[in-house]
Write a structure and sequence with these properties.
Layout (H helix, E strand, L loop, with lengths): L8 H15 L8 H11 L5 H10 L1 E10 L5 H18 L2 E7 L2 E8 L1 H13 L3 E12 L10 E4 L2 H13 L11 H9 L4 H4 L5
Parallel strand pairs: 2-5
Antiparallel strand pairs: 1-3, 1-4, 2-3
Helix pairs in contact: 2-3
Amino acid sequence: MQNSPYDTPSQRQRAVAMAVALTVDTPLAPQRYERHLLSLYQSGTLTIEEVVELLDLSVYQVLYHSRATKPPNETDLLALLDWSRRFNAEHQITGLLLYSDNRYVQVLEGPEADVRALYTRIKKDPRHEQVVTVSEGPSPQRRFADWRMGFGKLAVPLIDQVLEAARQQTLYTGIPLNDPHLQALLLAFGSTAASEQKTPG
């Protein structure tokens, strides 16, 4: 069997460092899940072929927040949710939409090309402004597989705290999270807090 040119930890370390350096500040820069797989490759836990295979099996996720250009009423929100669910069903996209006081927080997940195309459309939608990407990249699995588009209304301080926890991938220690939407959001974006919260029973 022919040896890989990257058999030693130092060789794998250099290979990953070179790949990261070549892609820094570009759309190809490794995101959270990709960085995790690369660390497993560096440690020798995975081969590069296994890393590529896992990425091929992954889904693409986007988490963003934005402001409504004008306050939507209940009819507007229901129409948006209805359109989203029909569109997502046709394109194998699942996710979550949260609304609070003129602000949207949304997760989209599915095939990369479809998610990217939808997100580009959202960023051009005149109903949105100040669209901010919190996280974007592959994920090992769907976190919202049962929701063509889950929906919830939340208080502003809670959304801000949860977004910050997701952005920093840190432990959320705020208000107890009995809302399943927020639990799923934190689980999807790297916080361990959701698994430690007690649901009422």
